[in-house]
Design goal:
Elements lengths: L9 H16 L6 E5 L2 E5 L1 H7 L1 H6 L11 E3 L5 H13 L9 H10 L3 H13 L6 H10 L3 H13 L1 H7 L1 H5 L3 H8 L9 H15 L4 H8 L9 H7 L9 H14 L22 E4 L12 E5 L4 E4 L8 E2 L2 E5 L2 E5 L2 E6 L2 E7 L3 E5 L4 E5 L10 E4 L4 E10 L2 E12 L4 E5 L10 E5 L2 E5 L21 E5 L4 E5 L10 E5 L2 E5 L10 E4 L4 E4 L7 E2 L2 E4 L5 E4 L2 E4 L2 E4 L2 E6 L4 E7 L8 E4 L5
Parallel strand pairs: 1-3
Antiparallel strand pairs: 1-2, 4-5, 4-33, 5-6, 7-10, 8-9, 9-12, 10-11, 12-13, 14-15, 15-16, 16-17, 18-19, 19-20, 20-21, 22-23, 23-24, 24-25, 26-29, 27-28, 28-31, 29-30, 31-32
Helix pairs in contact: 1-4, 4-5, 5-6, 6-8, 7-8, 8-11
């Protein structure tokens, strides 16, 4: 059999459609007329049947319409039908925000799936605060799930603007979209009480709904984020709030507000902020370690931007610790700093503990530690805060501590834990696989020798075995470190440089092999920097101090380390040079 080749012409289909379009314009060889609302459209039966599932079935062998000279389509508008016929004859779809509903209605009715897909893409590419509500209603009416999800996401993102400028659009929103939006975990810059008021206003405009449906709507609200005074008023704001289900949810929210110290471990969805979990907080720090400020900065990794909390840290602190638990920020211990005659004065080592609630932007002093501590290590493990070692300055005499204590959230009290094998300060800690690791530091009260190679900093690593309730030695670091940082990422522990180290080396600990490995050095030999690990596993280093021409210089760089690529890069700049801040991750409203 003789072989042959298949050759394709990309212009043939275009030319074919062009000829059909000319025949239609000239009304030649047309064998059917489509009629709607007084408008007539002569067409070619063969082209319609080959382009639309609706016409394929309509012009089948056994239908009465297969030879009919005209077909009435009263459900369609002339504009929508004209646009779809132009698409079938040319491949080009004319659509605008005003014509979209008719065009989409016609494409769905005539089962022109390609035109429906084009309309879906047109909607998703053009979503904005001005049209997201109307597009959500359109997508819900035509059962376009992907478009509906995209529109609902836009409504949640633009809710603050919609509440202020286009509230009527929200009140006309379909109930499925409103429930989906109220289910969202992120609704930027909107207080929950505003969402409660929106839901009640929507019920007034669109109700009364069946009891089950109103319960489904209101149960998506997070009453634990509403202030107790507002809750008491809202209970009587609408009869839908009086149903047993909603009253029980409001009661649980009121009980949550009365949990006191146990609030962080009594969290549930109704008390969880609608905010991204990866907002970084920079607590304290200043232009020098001796002049700490009461500022708290937030850093948005997505936008690489900083903002300041409206409320400040209640104290001026240095050598303190911070941690986050249950959506709350805890600021623990440190050295209280004040000014006398314009000069910074360290008054005392503190045992105070302050808790910040981002839901209501307020600070509260909670139970103090059993001992005052500075230059200690702090971490959270299984809903418990641990304070490990440190220094306690008394009458200008510093004592290094081996003691460990932990915060009992239920009782609102600190308890004594198993002490370290020996006193330690300036160490670091990290949590991995339900174990606490402690590394480096100094065991004596003496300062650090600032000559490379003569530091007394420890290389030792300890692990708290929660099962055996004991501290055990692990493989030591390759470098003695003091006032350094530990971080956990991708199943490893990373040790970053501390004060006065001769090199910029960092290293990684593998708990399975009990081994440390040297990695790419930090870009610059800084210390007293802030550091936090992102949920994706990268490490971010903020500011700090470096040596330049035999002087300490505070920097404003923000560096990111990618553990998978072993790569450093600068990603941002602090608003001003800062050193001595402590960092953690916390869900924060915009």
């Amino acid at each position: 059999m003789e072989s042959y080749s298949l050759l394709y012409s990309s212009s043939h289909r275009t030319e074919l459609l062009g000829r059909f379009q000319r025949l239609r314009s000239d009304r030649k060889m047309c064998d059917v007329v489509l009629e709607t609302d007084g408008a007539s459209f002569p067409c070619h039966r063969a082209l319609l049947a080959s382009s639309s599932n609706y016409f394929w079935a309509l012009f089948g062998d056994s239908t009465a319409e297969r030879l009919a000279p005209s077909i009435r389509l009263p459900a369609l508008t002339p504009g929508g039908l004209d646009a779809i016929l132009d698409f079938l004859y040319s491949g080009w779809l004319r659509v605008s925000p005003s014509t979209l509903p008719d065009v989409l209605e016609t494409a769905r009715y005539l089962q022109v799936d390609t035109a429906v897909t084009i309309c879906e893409r047109y909607i998703t590419d053009g979503l904005s605060a001005e049209n997201c509500c109307s597009y959500a209603n359109l997508a819900e009416h035509h059962a376009l799930p992907d478009v509906l999800d995209a529109a609902n996401d836009t409504i949640a993102t633009e809710m603050a603007k919609l509440l202020q400028e286009r509230r009527d659009d929200l009140l006309e929103l379909n109930v499925q979209s409103l429930m989906a939006v109220l289910d969202a975990d992120e609704i930027p810059a909107v207080k929950e009480v505003e969402l409660v008021k929106l839901a009640l206003d929507w019920l007034n405009e669109n109700g009364p709904l069946p009891l089950l449906q109103s319960n489904l709507l209101l149960s998506r609200l997070r009453f634990g984020l509403v202030a107790p005074s507002d809750l008491a008023h809202l209970v009587h704001a609408h009869r839908a709030m009086a149903t047993p289900l909603i009253r029980s949810q409001v009661t649980r929210a009121q009980e949550y507000h009365r949990t006191g110290s146990a609030g962080p471990i009594r969290q549930n969805k109704q008390s969880t902020l609608r905010a991204p979990p990866d907002r970084m907080l920079l607590v304290g720090g200043g232009s020098s370690t001796d002049r700490p400020e009461q500022q708290v900065l937030t850093f948005n990794m997505k936008t690489r931007t900083f903002a300041s909390l409206t409320s400040c840290l209640p104290l001026r602190l240095r050598n303190h610790c911070v941690c986050s638990l249950g959506g709350f920020l805890f600021v623990v211990g440190g050295e209280l700093v004040s000014e006398a005659d314009g000069k910074p004065v360290t008054v005392e080592t503190s045992n105070q503990v302050w808790r910040y609630d981002p839901r209501f932007d307020c600070w509260q002093q909670v139970e103090s530690m059993l001992q005052s501590r500075a230059k200690f290590a702090c971490c959270t493990l299984e809903d418990t805060i641990y304070a490990i070692g440190g220094q306690n300055a008394d009458a200008n005499v510093s004592a290094t501590l081996a003691s460990v204590e932990f915060y009992d959230m239920v009782a609102g009290a600190w308890r004594r834990g198993a002490p370290l094998p020996g006193p330690l300060h300036g160490h670091a800690c990290a949590v991995l696989d339900h174990n606490i690791y402690v590394s480096g530091g100094l065991s004596s009260n003496s300062g650090v020798v600032m000559i490379p190679g003569q530091s007394q900093s420890s290389r030792e690593v300890l692990r708290w075995d929660g099962m055996g309730r004991a501290w055990k030695k692990r493989a030591p670091m390759s470098i003695g470190r003091f006032c350094h940082r530990l971080a956990t990422a991708h199943g490893y522990i990373y040790a970053l440089l501390g004060m006065y180290e001769p090199f910029c080396d960092i290293e990684r600990y593998d708990p399975r092999a009990d081994r440390w490995t040297r990695l790419r050095p930090l870009l610059a030999a800084t210390f007293n920097y802030g550091m936090a690990a992102t949920p994706s596993g990268s490490l971010v280093v903020f500011g700090g101090t470096k040596w330049s021409n035999a002087q300490e210089v505070v920097v404003k760089s923000v560096l990111e380390y990618d553990p998978k690529k072993d790569h450093w890069r600068e990603i941002a700049q602090l608003p001003r040079p800062l050193t001595g801040m402590e960092c953690t991750l916390l869900p924060m409203p915009d």
